[in-house]
Amino acid sequence: MSVAKRGARSGVAALALGLSLAGPHTVGTAAAEPAENGSPSVASPQPGPARDTPARVRPSRPAPKGDSDAGIVHRGRGTAEPAATTGSAEPTTAPSADPRPVRRAAGHRTWQDQPGDSGAGTQPKTALPASPSANPVQSNSSTTSPLGSAVPAFGLSASPAPAAAVAVATATPRPADSVPSIFTTPPPAVVKPIASIGVAVTSFFDSAANFLSGLPDGPITDFFEGALLLVRRTLFNAFPALNAGQTTGTETVNPAYFTKDELQAYLLDLAKQQYGDLFGQTVPVYGNAPWPEYYKTDATTGVVSDTNTQVSGVDEADFVENDGQYMYVAHNGRLSIVRTDLSVASESTLSGNVVGEYLSGDRLTVITQSGSGWYGPYVKMAYGYWGPWKPQTTVTVYDVTDRTAPTVVKETVFDGGYQSSRAIDGVVYVVLQRSVNLPAPNYTDTPVVYVDGGVTPDDTVDLTADPVVAKPIRFDPTAPTAYRTYETWDEYLARVGPSIADLSLPHAYTVDSDGNLVDLGLVAGAEDIVRPHSADQQSLLTVVSLNSAGPAAGPAFADSVAAMVSSTGGTVYMTQGALYVATPEYHYTGTSASTDTRIDRFVVTGSDLSWQAGGLVSGTLINQFAMDEQNGYLRVATHTASSHWSDGTTATRDDNGIYILDTAGTTLDEVGQLTGLAPGEQLYAVRYVGGTAYLVTFVRTDPLFAVDLSDPAAPALQGELVVPGFSNYLQSVGDGLLLGIGQEREPGTWNSYVHATLFNVSDGTNLSQIDREFLDPGSQWSWSEAQFDHHALLYTAEDGLLVVPVSGSGYDAQTGYHSDQFLKVLRVGPNGIEVVGEIHTDEPVLRTVRIGDVLYAVGDTSVTAYRLSDLSEIGSSAPAPSVV
Q: Could you give the CA distance from residue 99 to residue 69 in angstroms, rounded to a whole number?
């Protein structure tokens, strides 16, 4: 167990120390002139990405098609620039260097400190000035571009290189087939007086931090470093205009995002990597086997229940919504609106697989997914050819003012797979992800023709003169059926270079009155895509906002922002002001394998979206509950599994821990960590309640840990409780009470039982179990969907009502196998868990809804009502008269 970054924070001490260290030097740095040779001097770094939220000027969206940008939708971070001339033009802007040094706590890695970087974390990095005939070469961290030039690794921030490093840097000639470099330093931006002050203030903090980073580690260094970070966060939060990345009255390009030329160069670079072995080559073609196919399974008076969510005020997509008078069920290709008296007001057809819906006043937003690919968390595999991974996500907004005849207000289709979504006050935020679909090189096939069943082609036969003599042989998988010749790189560059972004990245479409798709252009254009932190990111993660209350004639979607990431799949967590997306990053060497998690923070203000910061933590997240934000800090619980092998033996290490990240600025800096929790065990559940984190790990028993997070720099283990079994899901059910839903195996057998456990966590140093209730004691094997999907759980805090769906099965020698599905109705209070009863339904229950003293069980085809007083059935919904 280790705790990093201990020590108190003192703002006054840090401010005094910084002033004495920096003095007038900070102002001089901001106003320094470039060196005579046209390159920025070492003492005069260019303003880099701001430490606080970047300002993003957003004019209205122009017409998506018919302009000179091949469908790119501009978002207005700077004046649009002409597309680069293929293979020759230099970009006019590129990433700025951030002179702020990076000082890390023990075990912390930033984006400047990646596995495989030589000397990572020991030398500052810089982006050298561009020249018309040379690519920069970085002395301490570079990668070889597939275009043949050495380029520095991507970084969202970098420190200026020492003078010696600049002096020895050499320029290599640009290959003739190269594309514009995107690793160059941009020209100085227009800076107004307030921005000049901001640059000076930022440089002041950077100078002080640079001094502290050179001191030996110790309590005193940590003391001043923590104090400096606190002052910086407080100052920029109080005076956002001091942010060096912002301007007043002048529109500037945000250095965190691509320019159009940079995006084109990046995508061409990826194409050279992906298809580099094919250009100009001739290769044999053989028969192909089918690929697997993926598809989704079809799995007000008084208290009115709502979707069980993680954060108050942040709605999560679910299959059922209700307003106290109507229930809106989106499932199995249809939208049913059912009154509380169980009569069906209307029923409409839905195309695609429903992944969730949101209700806001008289607007209902339904999200579906179609096309091949992944359909959310419930996935099965079937055989058959499924082609390229090209899923599409459709967001349909209905006006349900007349519940008997809902009308479509707007229907928008997005290229990309649905990852997750949230909604706040009628604004829906959808997270999409899709691999970059780079255009493949063109080719020409020359068929191989075998004569009279022979195995060798007869070149003497003139097939055009006498094709009758040519007969194909029986299928031979070892013999080519054709020879394929691909176009050259120059031909590819000329054909797709200017439009590679439009051809590779996801588009958005609206659906007109005739049901036809109208292409709106790119979901996120160049100025909406954050520069990746390394050069091999090939998956585009996009966040889109849609205002469900907007008029039909308004824009298809309000805003978008995107980031390049290394893999598909991610975990989403959202607060009232920020949305986090965590994606895994896998690292492999010849002798080891490990996984980190990249976290991107997007700032949300109504419909406006902007990327703000990113960071990296060790390990992986189990679900959205692994993240939580409080008082400007993001708390992240991870499970770390790494493998090492040599001489035929493999060693695997498992660990669990919590990392505390500061959310101010453009990097999520680690300020504290607690690791070494239950080494060798797997993390099963996480829940944050105020300043405490509760974690469950499991191998044979269920250790429940309480971790004190009141001091972000020094998270500390308070207490630990060991009980049989484990919990998959934790939920606060009152002051000092924590509920767990999980399983326990019967000793000496394979029997496993689902249970609900109530813990007393009022004293973190003395955790205790109040009660444990097995939900299906009559079965040999039982489980609950609530273990894996918290939306399946119904809990109303007003009276402690708890409804858990249960599935059980078993074997009897006389009757054979049996199975059952039912609802377990409980009440939870300080004294324990009271069993109210069970409700056995005629069909599987999708969700449960409470309206007053009536409990509604929503199934695949009907809704059934039960009295809470005695759980007796009231009735079921009748089929709708028609489907429109």
A: 34
Helix, strand, coil shares of the chain, percent, nearest 5, are 15, 40, 45
Residues forming a β-bridge with 716: 708
Q: Which residue is associated with the tokens 């998956």? A: 539
- For residue 613, give the H/E element and its range: strand 608-618
Beta strand pairing status for 633-646 and 627-630? antiparallel
CA distance 569 to 432: 9
Which among 144, 29, 16, 143 has a CA at the least distance from the CA of 97? 29
Do the beta carbons of residue 415 and residue 542 sit within 8 Å? no
How far from 708 is each of 2, 10, 675, CA to CA, in Å? 14, 21, 13
d(CA 64, CA 268): 23
Q: What is the mean pLDDT of residues 474-495?
A: 82
pLDDT at 215: 65
CB burial class (10 A; 0-12, 13-18, 19+) of residue 480?
A: middle
Contact 681, 699 (CB under 8 A): yes
User: What gap in Å lies between CA 795 and CA 828, rounded to an integer?
Assistant: 9
pLDDT greater than 80 at residue 280? yes
For residue 824, give both structure tokens: 């377990």
* Segment holding 670, helix H or strand E: strand 669-674
pTM to 2 decimal places: 0.70
Q: What pLDDT score was predicted for residue 502?
A: 94
Short-list 420, 339, 462, 26, CA closest to 201: 26
Q: How many CB atoms lie within 10 A of CB 859?
A: 18
Q: Where are the beta strands (DSSP E) in 761-815?
A: 768-774, 781-783, 794-796, 801-812
Q: 569: Cβ–Cβ under 8 A, 6 or more apart, which residues? A: 419, 433, 583, 584
**pLDDT score, position 466:** 45
DSSP code of residue 559: E
Helix (H) or strand (E) segment spanning residue 228 = helix 219-238
- Alpha-carbon torsion, ordered 839, 842, 845, 850, to 10 deg: -50
Helix H or strand E encompassing 232: helix 219-238
Q: Does the structure show a pLDDT above 70 at 771?
A: yes
3-class DSSP state for residue 342?
coil
What gap in Å lies between CA 524 and CA 58, rounded to an integer? 13
- Confidence (pLDDT) at 247: 39
Nearest CA to 243 out of 95, 460, 50 is that of: 50
Please name every residue paired with 629 in a beta bridge, in sequence order, or none if there are none.
634
| Lowest mean pLDDT segment, chosen from 304-313, 374-383, 451-460 | 374-383
**How far is CA 268 from its chain centroid?**
24
422 close to 315: Cβ distance less than 8 angstroms: yes
Q: Which segment of 176-180, 357-361, 793-797 scores lowest on mean pLDDT?
A: 176-180
CB of 199 within 8 A of CB of 285?
Answer: no
Q: What's the CATH number of domain 769-884, 3.40.630, 3.30.200, 2.30.29, 2.40.128?
A: 2.40.128
Please determine, for residue 211, whether its predicted confidence score (pLDDT) is greater than 50: yes
Tokens matching residue 272: 């050279």
